[in-house]
Structures are given as C-alpha cells and as structure tokens.
From TrEMBL:
Molecular-function GO terms, alphabetical: 3'-5'-RNA exonuclease activity; endonuclease activity; RNA binding
Protein name: S1 motif domain-containing protein
Record SMART domains: PINc, RNB
Gene3D superfamilies, per database record: 2.40.50.690, 2.40.50.700, 5'-nuclease (3.40.50.1010), Nucleic acid-binding proteins (2.40.50.140)
Record has Magnesium as a keyword: yes
Record key words, sorted: Exonuclease, Exosome, Hydrolase, Magnesium, Nuclease, Nucleus, RNA-binding, rRNA processing
Length: 943
C-alpha cells in the first residue's frame, strides 16, 4: 500500500521547502512481543516480555533520561521509529546511545517502524506542528499495541508532556510520567538517576544547598536573551558568537574567539560567564572599554580560593599555563603591564556542551535519618567545571567514591547548576578507578569490541594465502631484506623499511605499511567502530586499541619471520637522498627482524658489525640525516617536548621509575622515512582527488601566539626572528649557551606557542591553506599508521583508488560527511593526547607518593607570587610559591615584566633577592592533599 506524507525542511539558504515522500506501508512488521499470536515470529528475536509492562517511550523521555534508561532496571521498552528520528535530529550522541541499547542482546529494547506499518501510519495534517504530529503518532502506536496485544500485556505510554498525557487519557490510553513509573518500581536508588525539570528542581532545594556554605553569598545571574533577540543582535554586530574556552588553570577566566571582531574576547568571573560551560557556543556582549582589564602578570592559584570568583580577574592565554598549575589574578602591584584586551559578558547560550563529569562529592556530615533525598555538591576533577548540585538517597555510599554526574539545568537564581548522579566508578585513590576517570573525562571508548565487530575478522590462525601472492595487484617482495624499528615491546607494528644498493650506485628504499584496508572494509561494523574511535590511545600502563587485537597484534602486525600484506612506497634515491622516482604498490613482505630503537642504535654504533642488516641500517641513517637537514634548510622546525617515560611493575602496574624519554638517531631515522612516505602519498592522492582527499595541515602561529616566547627570549638577551618557520628554525639553532639544557628549554617553550596540526578535507580549503608550518611542507597527510589511526585507513583507500586497485567508497562523494569525519578525527586525536597526559600525571602522583625527592629545576614562567618550573630529570612542570596564602614578610615581591624576573624589595626599597626565567633552582617534591580527594604534587623551593 502506498501513502504519501508532506514534510517541511529548511535549506542551506534558509528557505522552507516542502517535500512529499511516498511510503510503502506493510502489514507484516513484527511488534516485538514474545507471546504475540498475530505476528509472524519465525524469523525474529523476541525481546519483549509481556509479563512486564510494555513501555512506549516518548521523545523527551529518550532525550533527557538516557542515563536512567541505560540502567538494567529499565527494560521491556518499545522505541518507535518516529521517536528515534526526532532524537536523531536533536541529539546525535543520545541517539547513538539509544541505538546501542536496541542492539544489545542483554537488553529488551525493540525498535518498531510505526511509520511503515499500515495500522500505525499517521499522515501529517495541514498546520500541524512537528511536535503535535509526533505526539499523535506516538499515541496512535500505543493504542495499536493495546489493541494488538489485548489482555496478554499491559501497555504504558511514558511521557512527561502534560498535554500529551492528558490527551492520551482522554483517548483511553494508559500513560504515566517517568518519575511516577520509577517510584512504582520500589528501587529508591533509581530516583537519583532522574533528570528533574528545572521548574521542579531549582526552588525546592535552594535553601538546603546554600546552607552547605553559609559564608558564601548567593550569586544571581542575568537572564539569558531569547534566541530571536540573539539572532538579531548577531546580525547587527551588537553580540558576538563563538565557543567559550575556560582556562584549564583558572576556571574564572574564559575566552571566546570572535570572527566578527577578529580577536579573542576575555570573560572574567563566573558572573560574566553567566552559567556558560566550557565548550558552549555563546553570544557575547562587549563591556564598555573602560571596563576592559589590563594584561597583568598572573599569580599561581591557591587551591582554596577557587570559589572566590569576584577576585579572579587576570587574563592570560588559555594554553599559557602548565598542566599542573592553577592560575588566578595578581593581587600584587606589577612593575609593568601590557595593553588591555576586549572583555565581555555572556548574554545567551546558543548551543550547550553539557555532558557527564567525573569527580567526587564535597565532604559533609551525614544528615539525620536515612532513605530521604539529601542535597550535596559534586566537585569535578576538571577544574574548569563549576560545582554541581545533586540530590541523592545514597550519600553514605557515595562520599568516598569517584562518581559520574550529568548536568540537568542551571537556574539563574542558583549559584550552582543542578544535576543527577549517574553511576559509581570506584574508590577514590584506587589506581584502576583513577585510570577509568581519565578515560571517561576524555571521552575514550574502552569498551570491549562487540560481537558484530569481531565477526568481521578473518578466522585465526591467519596466514598469507597463495591467492594473495598470485593477485596481480600485489607485488611479491618477500625476497627483500625488510625490517622494523619500534619502541621496545611493541606488538602493533605497522611500518617496516628496506634499503637495497642498486648497480648504478643509487639506493632502492621502501616504506612498507600494514595493509589494514584488506581487512577493514567500508560500511562494515568493524569500519564503523574504527571510524568512531578514531585512534588508539596510549596510557602509561596500557593501550586502548582502535581495532581488535587479532588485527593489531597478529594479522596486520608486521612481525619478524612471518609473511604479511603491506602497502608500499618505494623510491629510487641517490646517495645524496635525492628522489629519482616514486612508486606505490600493494605487496607481500616477510620481515627479517623486529628491532627496538635501542637495538637498532647499538647495531649502527658497533663498528665490529658488518652484516647486511646493519649495513642497511647505516645506509638508511646516512640518507635520513641528509633528508632531515634538507627539511630544516627548507624551514622545518626541530621542536622539543617533555615526554615522560615510566618503568612499570608487570604485576602491580605501579610505576617503578620515571624519567625523560630519550630520542636516538634510530628514532629520527624512522621518523624521516615516515615523513617522506606521508608527503609522497599526500601528493599522489591530492593530484588524483583534489576535492576529497584527507590531508593534514599545521596553521602558521600568529604573532600574538608567539608573544610569550618572544618575551622570554628578550629577557635573556636572545633575538628570535619569527617572520617565517625558516627564520624561527635558524634562530632556535643559534640559541646556544654554555648550559647544555638551554637550547632544549627554548625549543620546549617554542612548541607551546604552536597550534595543533589538524586533519581536513582538501575541498574545504584553498591550496595555500594546506601548508604544514612545522614540517615546512606544502602537502602532508597520515599514511604510515593505519593500525593506530583511522585517518591512515581513509588515506589507504584514497591511494588504492588513485592506483586503480579499488573503487573510491561512496563517502568520498559526500563533502559534508568527509568534513564530519575529519572533525571527529581531530576531536579523537586531541582527546587521546589529553588522556595520555592525564595518565602521566596520575602515575607521577603514584610514583612520588612514597618518594619525596630533592632535585634541580628550571624556571620557565614568572608569576607574582612565585614561578613555574620544569624538572628536566622527570619531565615534570609545576608551581613554586614564594609566599603563602595571605603571608606578609620583610619585603614585597614585584614582577619585572621586561626582565622576566621576580624581585623581593626590602624596606630600603633595594633588591634583596630575585629569580629570573630559565634560572636553575633546587626544589623539594612531595605529594600533598590540601583539599580532600585532590592530591597534588607540591614543589617547594629549597633555600
């Protein structure tokens, strides 16, 4: 049976366009009930149990109560297709969680295609709003279930929409609110998971919560402007739109990048943030210029001052501070200050970025009586997040736990946002618990791979078949002396090399990359999972794979002495490392050795070794040195970072030792050929697919971004030319002093001024914007790590299509989808980096908890009440206080901005003591806990 339905949609130009869709209606769609005697159940699983009420969930229940629905106590639910479509349009993250529920064999959530069933199809009426249409479609489907199942089952519509519930009752449909239904289950702990409407949750608990902190004044926020007024204000230039970024080390200071004024607008204090969270898209109004604040030197934050938002008024770059430091305002008088920058206040929220947060409850005494709701304040581990008020019946069980809390609302009369408890992670301080917190905070998916994903893998044991070797598209390179060089203990080996001397005096050099796309096919569950995960994540004690271990450690890993499938880039090079020719081929290889960096370096350094493998290593290293110098001559930067390496106990997984990661020539050799392969592949795919290639760019830093580096350099008499990457590279090369660590410190400071490199679709930008600043390369991509990065999987598909090996998958015809993939890859890559850093911080705390240490440190930033130091031996950075909270001594500390030093003036106003940037000092390091459940590594100056 054919029916038509009329829908309205908004075009990109903003016009409303009517669409008429023809729908084929069926009468054989299974209802999902196990005991149904009408439907044909021979080929369908029966998830719904008619012994329990069948729940028909409306859109708002799915959108707002997803944390509750994921609890196993809520089951036996029908998900109508009309509801799922609306959820998908409004919140893709919630939609994905609901789809996961519907495909979980352990849960009873059944998707019913009500829009395609002849008895539940509803035609849109003229003048009917989308909301009214959806409500009517839900009621029609619920009534059909009641009639269809009769007395065999109880069918209950769950809705919090008062009009919908009232209309359902008038139509003879059983309906209930989610709150009432949960109470009927007799499980009080489920009530903690409920999202309360703002009107029900704000006023009833305000007095209780404010009483928790009777000395703090109540903050009343300004009302947010309606969307219509915001739109008009943006159009007229009265308001400015952008993403709010809260300073990671000063939660009372935020930035909104505004294209309309071409500068960052600084937001000071929670009042001016006006209930905006980090990541929210906001509308900002500029304050009068006489209210703009001067750029004063920051002080290092006192942990106990975090709620005093009326005094936290010092601007800085959001990424200016080290990872272990909180920064707040300068209460002292500075000797120099710089011009003020635009300041503003948030007048409206355009798009919220609320999600779940990890942390613990603020310690409090247990109230009298048990079993009743108690108000408590949740403190996130992320200092950028304000405290969140929750109500719980489980206070006694939650006080010593790390828990997850979601935000529900933030009323303008409330100092804190309101939220609800989601689940317990584990005991505070437990290493496994704190590691899971790292993953949750950075949105890392560490769940086991589903059965559908694992079903995509070839059976084990797997080996190269005769068909693989005979395939005309694949070259047999098993006779080549191929080898890999990786970190010690590496199991997911995705790259290998070979170097063969040619009769003409040149070299054939090959980079061989695991042929992951031979096993990961577009559109499969395996491909979908890899696309969502985006990258493998490397924590101190474990690795979270993008692909299942049978692929990463066996089938695709280029292990020694086994045949493997590869995608190869092969050059002919002169002894001067000039590329004569380049070719790409799918191949079969057999690695003769899987070396660690240390082993490869030892071979190259041992003059007694003259075997073919060692000779190949030396030839590659000689070529790599020339290639590296040529890159530097073109303007590539040689930067540095404070990479930390832990020695981990294999049984307890606790750190046994900590130190800076050592880079050897062997590391640089491998890196050079991987860079060259990526550049060659980037040119090939861009030439063949100019509008849909996935490339990687590194934007040129602005003068403002480089200002902290320039100020430090000027203070120590160093002249840095930042007019181009070549000029900066040359300046860094000449930044040499007697101090052997001086140059590395300068390079670390330079690294921190750079933007992140990002993936992008070539059709989204013009060729000049493709440039990679750090590598001084006009074209660059990622090809060499498809086991660990989904970007490389995409590039492998592009390269194969460019060679006529495979057809280009349909996704490459959809620019918006490609852009969305690139955005997700950037998001996942950034999160993986942040998770790795957080894991290092966690294990640093564990290591020093029982190991107080005295060591040497270097001052890298001056602040008004101390300075920030870098500890070379351990790769750690943190604050050193020169004054305690409210401390007054025999003199005052002053910051000399120009000389980058902090000076203590005695009573005669002459210098008595000073500390300068890059100066060496002795410090004491130990773990302390100034606030409950917030341990930190404290660095103290040794006189």
């Amino acid at each position: 049976m054919l029916k038509s339905n009329t829908f309205s949609r908004k075009t990109k130009a903003g016009r409303i366009k009517k669409e008429v869709r023809e729908i084929y209606l069926r009468d054989d769609i299974y209802c999902g009930a196990a005991a149904c005697k009408t439907c044909d159940t021979s080929t369908s699983r029966a998830p719904l149990d008619v012994a329990s009420p069948l729940l028909i969930l409306d859109t708002n229940v799915l959108l707002h109560q997803i944390d509750l629905l994921e609890n196993s106590a809520i089951d036996n639910a029908v998900l109508l297709s009309v509801v799922l479509d609306e959820v998908k349009n409004k919140n893709m993250a919630v939609y994905n969680r609901i789809r996961a529920l519907s495909t979980n064999p352990l849960r009873k959530f059944y998707v019913f295609s009500n829009q395609f069933h002849k008895d539940t199809f509803v035609k849109r009426m003229d003048g009917e709003t989308p909301n009214d249409y959806n409500d009517r479609a839900i009621r029609v489907a619920t009534r059909w279930y009641q009639t269809h199942l009769g007395t065999a089952a109880t069918v209950l519509l769950i809705t919090n929409d008062r009009d919908n519930k009232r209309t359902a009752g008038e139509e003879g449909i059983s309906a209930d609110t989610i709150q009432s239904y949960v109470k009927s289950l007799g499980q009080p702990e489920l009530l903690d998971l409920l999202v309360q409407p703002a009107s029900e949750s704000e006023d009833t608990v305000m007095v209780e919560v404010e009483d928790l902190r009777p000395s703090k004044r109540q903050v009343v926020y300004q009302e947010h402007k309606p969307m219509s007024e915001i739109t008009l204000g943006l159009h007229r230039g009265i308001y400015h739109q952008g993403k709010l970024r809260v300073n990671r080390y000063n939660p009372f200071q935020a930035y909104v990048g505004s294209e309309s004024i071409g500068d960052e607008i600084i937001i000071y204090g929670r009042q001016n943030m006006n209930r905006a969270f980090d990541g929210d898209i906001v509308a900002v109004e500029l304050l009068p210029q006489d209210q703009w604040h001067e750029e004063k030197n920051l002080s290092i934050a006192d942990e106990e001052d975090e709620e005093e938002d009326d005094v936290h008024l010092a601007p800085s770059s959001a990424d200016d501070a080290p990872r272990t430091t909180n920064l707040v305002s300068d209460s002292a008088t500075d000797m120099n200050s710089t011009p003020s920058r635009p300041s503003g206040r948030v007048v409206g929220i355009i798009k919220r970025n609320w999600h779940s947060y990890c942390g613990s409850l603020e310690p409090m005494s247990m109230p009298a009586g048990t079993g009743s709701f108690t108000s408590a304040l949740f403190v996130s581990k992320d200092h950028r997040i304000p405290k969140i008020r929750i109500q719980t019946r489980q206070l006694e069980n939650l006080l010593d736990k790390r828990i997850i809390v979601a935000v529900d609302s933030w009323d303008r009369q409330s100092r804190y946002p309101s939220g609800h408890y989601v689940r317990v992670i584990g005991e505070i301080g437990d290493r496994d618990t704190e590691s899971e917190v790292v993953l949750i905070e950075n949105d890392i998916n560490s769940r086991p791979f589903s059965s559908q994903v694992l079903a995509c893998l070839p059976p084990l044991p797997w080996s190269v078949s005769s068909e693989d070797v005979a395939n005309s598209i694949r070259q047999d390179l098993r006779s080549l002396r191929v080898f890999s060089v990786d970190p010690p203990g590496c199991k997911d080996i995705d790259d290998a090399l070979h170097c063969t001397a040619l009769p003409n005096g040149n070299y054939e050099v090959g980079v061989h990359i695991a042929d992951v796309t031979n096993f990961v096919h577009p559109g499969t569950p395996l491909d979908g999972e890899a696309s969502q995960r985006g990258t493998s994540v490397y924590l101190v004690e474990r690795r979270i794979d993008m692909l299942p271990k049978p692929l990463t450690e066996d089938i695709c890993s280029l292990r020694a002495d086994v045949e493997r499938l590869a995608f190869s880039v092969i050059w002919e090079m002169t002894p001067d490392a000039e590329i004569i020719s380049t070719r790409f081929t799918k191949s079969v290889i057999k690695s003769c050795a899987a070396l660690s960096y240390v082993e490869a370096q030892a071979r190259m350094d041992d003059s007694r070794l003259m075997d073919p493998l060692t000779t190949d290593l030396r030839n590659l290293n000689a070529l790599a040195k020339i290639m590296r110098q040529r890159r530097i001559d073109r303007g590539a930067l040689t930067l540095a970072s404070a990479e930390v390496k832990f020695q981990i106990d294999t049984e307890t997984h606790d750190p046994l030792d900590i130190g800076m990661y050592q880079i050897r020539e062997a590391n640089q050799m491998v890196e050079e050929f991987m860079l060259a392969a990526n550049v060659s592949v980037a040119k090939q795919i861009r030439d063949c697919f100019p509008s849909c290639s996935l490339l990687r760019r590194h934007p040129t830093p602005t003068r403002e971004m480089l200002e902290p580096l320039l100020c430090t350099a000027a203070a120590i008499g160093l002249d840095l030319d930042v007019s181009s990457s070549k000029a900066l590279a040359d300046s860094l090369d000449h930044a040499v002093r007697d101090d052997p660590y001086f140059n590395k410190l300068i390079r670390i400071l330079a690294t921190r001024c750079m933007t992140q490199a990002v993936y992008f679709c070539s059709g989204d930008l013009s060729p000049p914007e493709y440039h990679h600043y750090g590598l001084a390369a006009p074209l660059y991509t990622h090809f060499t790590s498809p086991i660990r990065r989904y970007a490389d999987v995409i590039v492998h598909r592009l390269l194969a299509a460019s060679l006529g090996i495979d057809k280009l998958p349909p996704v490459f015809q959809d620019r918006s989808q490609l852009t969305s993939i690139a955005d997700n890859l950037n998001y996942r890559h950034r999160n993986a980096q942040m998770a790795s850093r957080a894991s290092v911080e966690l294990h640093t705390l564990i290591y020093f908890r029982k190991r107080p240490t005295d060591t040497e440190a270097r001052i890298v930033k001056i602040r008004s009440n101390g300075f920030i130091v870098f500890v070379p031996k351990y790769g750690i950075e943190g604050p050193v206080y020169l004054t305690g909270r409210g401390e007054k001594g025999s003199g005052e500390w002053h910051v000399d901005e120009q000389q980058q030093k902090i000076v203590k003036m005695d009573n005669s106003n002459s210098n008595s003591l000073s500390y300068s940037v890059l100066q060496s000092v002795r410090i004491h390091m130990e773990v302390v806990e100034p606030q409950p459940n917030r341990p930190k590594l404290q660095l103290t100056l040794i006189s």
